[in-house]
Amino acid sequence: MASFSKRLTVHEVTELLEQGDIDDILDDVTDIFMEPPVNVNNDITDEDSDDDGPIGDINHMPASLLNAHIVIHDPDTENTEVAKKHKVSDKKIRKKIKQNISSRPKNKITKQNQDAQQTVLWRQGDLETPNIFVDDQKPNLFYNTLQPYELFELFFDQQVLEMIVDYSNNYASNKNQSLQIDVNELKCFLGILLLSGYNELSRRRMYWEKSPDTHNDLVSGAMRRNRFEQIFSYIHFCDNSKLDEHDKFSKIRPLLSMLNSRFLIHTPHQQFHSIDESMVPYFGRHGCKQFIRGKPIRFGFKIWVGTLRLGYVVWISPYQGKSGDLQNTEFGLGASVIISYANNLLAHRIAPYHLVFDNFFTGLPLLEKLSEMGLYGTGTIRSNRTKKCPINVAAMKKKERGSYESYVSDSGILVCAWKDNSTVTIASNNVGVEPVTAAKRWSVSDKKSIRLPQPQLIHLYNQNMGGVDRMDQNVSQYRISIRGKKWYSCIVSYSIDLAVQNAWQLHKLHTEKPMDLLAFRRHIATYYLQKFNKAPNPGRKGGKPSSYIPRYDGVMHYLVPQEKQTRCAECHQKTTSRCNKCDVGVHLKCNIEYHTLK
User: CA–CA separation, 280 vs 303, rounded Å?
Assistant: First the structure.
């Protein structure tokens, strides 16, 4: 019996057997067997080649188990000459296998070459039946009668405030602290945060200082400084015992979900919605922190935002990478954001919404998906996503300003290139080139304003795309300036600013003579501070200080374990135990010395 000097994998031998070509290569093949694993005498014989895969899975077998031998039997002789005679080149077999595999039809298309495999037919021209929906802008008398604080409470309503109060009190009690905050005191706390947006100081304690240049009677008369810092330390928005380990924003997910539902309920009924990204400034450490070069806010959390044309926020979703809750991720990250937003709109009200987005999101599969959902979409598109559209971008750059060229795919998607200072490529499944409008531009050569022909979908995109940018502008004007140590405090402040901004948008839409954003925000802050203030108990005036110090009373000072290491109050080294009464870290060896009066 003779065998090959080089082993083949089971997959390679199987390919030969399925094609029936093994007899063409070896006329004397009579047996094929799998040899025992290399580590047959070792303690472990079923270990996986993939550490992350399931143990014992047939798809994760080690290399030692995936080798086969093709054996040639020769009953007359078993000498080396016969073995050499029947030995076949390993390269010849592998070459035959590659030829067989390459000749097979490829049924599986990977995500990378899926666009290249699909053939799209293009014709030059315009959409035959463009359909444009007219917005319903009738004012709602319900919003017309509401005061600014009542509009704000459409989003931070009683249910949201009670949720924050319950979670905060539970969190404080788990830390052996008595917070005992109620809804009215929470409104006073929110009033101080709103005031810090337009009356900013370098340090938050300066609002309570007696210095004439920083003291604020409205703040100091509404809540004591230590009480504010206590609430700010223990305010919470979730149950820590029920956190979702796959959600990186589970600490604030209940708040975001409740605000999203309220944003959507009170959204004015309009067709055009814009989707873009927004940045929340953050300079600490977190796995979801982003850096985007060229943005006004370069470091922080990226938030997917859907808005109306003037900036009313309908939906927000923090970006958290692959572990996010986006839908239809097979279309890519950008398209999954659009589809998730579209599903939220359709779940609230079925209507022919028109979504506008930039080239980060746009692709022909996304527009086709929106058409299947009964929605419209328009967005700038990158040249490598047009599926070989015949538009010659290089030739367009040489044409004069105002030139345009458009093609329509067999699925009803229009792609148009328009020459301005640079070439802009845009795609839509609803709006075409006609009617062509006139765009006012400045001519450097003529030194005067000129009129350029502009396709209709370019005009519609420019008119409806800036909703997220307008929202960012409104929020950045009077952003809450009091910052906390918790990583999610900046997103909570951002959510409060969004609620104020949305309330102001409703106020503008349904009021003949609306306030500006500053007056609207001041109205809410002053109302909360004057209505829900608690006259602080006056401190002790004069007299000798009390000789009673709880640290040295020798009563009920028990050491309890703590989750995180803190500094020992006596030796200042790290410890995992703390005194339940003094609420400071103390070693067991330092307990007696710390609680003894020296």
Answer: 7
For residue 499, report the phi and psi dihedrals to the nearest 5 degrees: -65, -40
Burial of 459: CB neighbours in 10 Å, binned 0-12, 13-18, 19+: middle
Q: How many CB atoms lie within 10 A of CB 507?
A: 21
Phi, psi of 208 (to 5 degrees): -105, 0
Burial class (CB in 10 A: 0-12, 13-18, 19+), 521: buried
The percentage of the chain sitting over the pLDDT mark of 90, rounded to a whole number, equals: 55
pLDDT, one tens digit per residue, over 221-256 is 999 999 999 999 999 999 999 999 889 999 999 999
Answer yes or no: is pLDDT of 546 > 80: no
**Mean pLDDT score, 251-266:** 96
* Helix, strand, coil in percent for the chain, rounding step 5: 35, 20, 45
Region of poorest pLDDT, from 59-63, 433-437, 507-511? 59-63
User: Is 284:211 a contact under the CB 8 Å cutoff?
Assistant: no
- Choose among 72, 69, 99, 256: nearest CA to 164: 256
Opening angle at CA 535, ends 150 and 230, nearest 5: 80
Contact 272/464 with Cβ under 8 angstroms? yes
Is 57 a residue whose pLDDT tops 70?
no
Q: What DSSP string runs through 325-350?
A: --S-GGG-HHHHHHHHHHHHHHHH--
- As a whole number of angstroms, the distance between CA 73 and CA 1 comes to 5
The type of residue at 36 is: P
Position 254: which residue type?
P
Find where tokens 């906390």 sit: 484
- DSSP letter for each residue of 178-194: -----HHHHHHHHHHHH
Structure tokens, 592: 């007696």
Question: Which among 108, 105, 96 is positioned nearest to 20, based on CA atoms?
Answer: 96
- What pTM value is reported for the model? 0.72
Residue 503 in contact with residue 514, Cβ under 8 Å? no
Residue 8: pLDDT over 80: no
Instruction: Say if residues 526 and 188 touch (Cβ distance below 8 Å).
Output: no
pLDDT at res. 351: 87
Q: How far apart are CA 378 and CA 427, in angstroms?
A: 6
CA 328 to CA 156: how far, in whole Å? Answer: 31
375 contacts 355 by C-beta, under 8 angstroms: yes
Q: Where are the beta strands (DSSP E) in 463-573?
A: 559-567
CA count, 13 A, side-chain hemisphere, 149: 17
Contact in structure between 208 and 219 (CB atoms under 8 Å): yes
User: Tens digit of pLDDT for each residue in 310-321?
Assistant: 999 999 999 998
The dihedral sign for the CA sequence 503, 509, 514, 517: positive
Question: Omega before 514 cis (within 30°)?
Answer: no
Residue 98 has pLDDT above 60, yes or no: no
Structure tokens at 20: 């029936």
Identify the three-state secondary structure at position 203: coil
3-state class of 404 per DSSP?
Answer: strand
591 or 10, higher pLDDT: 591
